[in-house]
Amino acid sequence: MITTSIEHHAILHSCEELERQGIETTVVPVRRDPDSQGMVDPEEIRRALRPETVLISVMHANNELGTIQPIAEIGRIAAQAKVGFHCDAVQSAGKVPLDVNLLGVDLLSISAHKFCGPKGVGALYVRPGTPLERRFYGGHAERDRRPGTENVPGIVGLGKAAELSRKLLVEDAARIRALRDRLETSLLDRISGARVSGDRTNRVPNTISMTFSGAGGEALLISLDLQGIACSTGAACSSGSTEPSHVLLAAGLSADDARSSLRFSLGRGTTAEEIDYAISVIPSVVERLRALSPRTSEASRDSHAALAAPSQ
For residues 81 and 78, what is the distance between their CA atoms, to the nearest angstrom? Predict the structure, then answer.
């Protein structure tokens, strides 16, 4: 099968298990240039195809960078090659329009908690005629896909959340995008050396990944949490990990910069007042941590020494 270097661990770990079962995986890299950082090149997918390829899996929007991938183009490549195509749309559902026919996918997965639905329930779209092998045995629930009594309240909650998200999609996206851009622009203006990772044009409206070199991400995370600001150093489900984000490394960041990066996620409940508060707090926290950083202090001393040295 073929996947990419920025996939969620839900995909990458599944690929690792498949490899233990003898199924080879080709992991395609993503672009590292600033104009399309974190974007998959469809031609890389085409070049990775082999006669024995049976499945391609590429996420729609990255959960850390927010970058939206060229899924429709990859879908056409998969269709031409008669290869199954799965898309992890967990991060994009409820934030941008999803049309399985326009995207050209055979399988598409979503999770309710990403669009204000209940946790612990998701949905898998399966194009008619797509062969699936059951993974669990013991009953005939969910069209013989898996046993067990269905989580009816969760399913109803997902359906209602999807209905509301569809009605509010345009309104929510415009409001959240404006708040995101305000936060992003203000932090870039107020914090020297701050950088945004990912494609700044083709992305979901709610996600910002920013690097604050010289200020450790974990220290930033703790300091901002004490100030009532919630963010993460990578995927929210990887909290507690001391390893730099595999997504940021794949997008071309150094390990130090990946460790000095934060992800901010906005949502339907985010207010303008909360954004103003974040703008007022984050710059001073970054500067304080930079001043405490041994590396930053050493660089500052070297800079002063260079200025004081006589010219040659």
Answer: 5
Q: Into which CATH architecture does domain 2-162 fall?
A: 3-Layer(aba) Sandwich (3.40)
Cα→Cα distances 18→1, 14, 23, 30, 300, Å = 9, 6, 5, 22, 50
Spans of all domains in the chain: 2-162, 166-306
> Which has the closest alpha carbon to 39: 65, 14, 13?
65
Please list the active-site residues: 237
User: Each residue of 53-96: pLDDT tens digit?
Assistant: 999 999 999 999 999 999 999 999 999 999 999 999 999 999 99
Distance CA 63, CA 112 (A): 15
- Kindly state the tokens that stand for 199: 């494609």
- Distance of alpha carbon 74 from alpha carbon 78, whole angstroms: 6
The stretch 270-293 carries a mean pLDDT of 96
Query: Residue 296 in 3-state DSSP?
Result: helix
CA dist 111 and 251 (Å) reads 25
* Same topology between domain 2-162 and domain 166-306: no
Q: Which residues pair with 37 in a beta bridge?
A: none
The CATH classification number of 166-306 equals 3.90.1150.10
Task: Please spell the DSSP secondary structure of 7-65, one letter per residue.
Answer: --HHHHHHHHHHHHTT---EEE----SGGGTT---HHHHHHH--TT--EEE--SB-TTT
Residues in the chain: 312
DSSP 8-state assignment for residue 104: T
Placement of tokens 């749309």 in the chain: 89
User: Could you tell me the two tokens for 181?
Assistant: 């851009």
Measured between alpha carbons, how far is 140 from 25 in angstroms, rounded to an integer? 31
pLDDT digits (tens, 9 = 90+) for 186-195: 999 999 999 9
**Cα dihedral angle (215, 217, 222, 228), rounded to 10 degrees?**
90
